[in-house]
Amino acid sequence: MxxxxxxxxxxxxxxxxxxxxxxxxxxxxxxxxxxxxxxIYHVHFEKGSRTKLHTHNGNQILIATKGKGSLxxxxxxxxxxxxxxxxxxxxxxxxxxxxxxxxxxxxxxxxSVDKKKTFxxxxxxxxxxxxSEYKTTWYESDFKTKVSxxx
Length: 151
Description:
By secondary structure, the protein is mainly beta. It has a single domain, classed as Jelly Rolls, CATH 2.60.120.10. It has 1 helix and 12 strands, in the order ββαββββββββββ. It has one helix at 29-33; strands at residues 13-14, 24-28, 38-45, 53-56, 60-66, 68-77, 84-95, 99-102, 107-112, 119-126, 136-141, 146-150. The strands form 2 sheets. A 6-stranded antiparallel beta sheet has the order 1-2-3-10-5-8. It has a 6-stranded antiparallel beta sheet with strand order 4-11-12-7-6-9, with no helix packed on it. The longest helix is centred in the first third of the chain and has 5 residues, at 29-33. The radius of gyration is 15 Å and the shape is globular.
């Protein structure tokens, strides 16, 4: 049994800037509690920052812990791996305490909605199979109609 705390400024990890639209950092909670079945992160989005469009090979749960954010779901059109069309089919507001489930292989983005305030959530990434690796595919897009490449 391991115990940790999501708050505090220690153990922050910078994230790949190619995966976010602005400054973002996180704590890897799964390492602290030695979780083997899930990847767990506490992600902090600076003002107006959000993830780029992405999919996961496993399911994901987000739990909003600070501020206001959003989750946007997109539909992919076409069979190409890059240079395909997208359309936003759902936008969900996220407030402190909200929990949302994202099925595997869903094209989505999430983060802060306010250019003046930060947003944070816990991301619980559920491994697709025991002893497998959780994978995220990141895309460069205009967040409206087209995807140009895999990041």
